[in-house]
Specification:
- This protein is mostly helical and about 90 residues long.
- Helices cover about 90% and strands about 0% of the residues.
- It is built from 2 helices and no strands.
């Protein structure tokens, strides 16, 4: 994923939650309780989405670093073994 796609994804994720907050305030001002319930559910789901993606991003970085370390270590070890092995 390139930087522009990541930027668009994260800003869209955050702006969606901000939009729900704005619509919630607007529905409170107009005393529309039924819309407040719907907006509350949508806001809850948006925040859960944000939290989930943040946790996945952190976990993915950790797993990628572990994978890179293991791959490099196995490559180095196989190179050393092949250099000292007798054919």
């Amino acid at each position: 994923m390139n930087k522009k796609d990541a930027w668009l994804f994260w800003w869209t994720l955050y702006l969606t939650a901000v939009l729900w907050v704005f619509l919630g305030i607007f529905s409170l001002i107009r005393f529309q309780a039924d819309y407040c319930l719907i907006i509350g559910v949508c806001l809850t789901l948006s925040v859960a989405n944000i939290i989930g993606f943040i946790k996945c991003r952190k976990d993915a970085k950790k797993h990628f670093q572990q994978f890179a370390t293991q791959t490099i270590a196995s490559r180095v070890s196989s190179t050393i073994q092949s250099a000292f092995s007798v054919v």
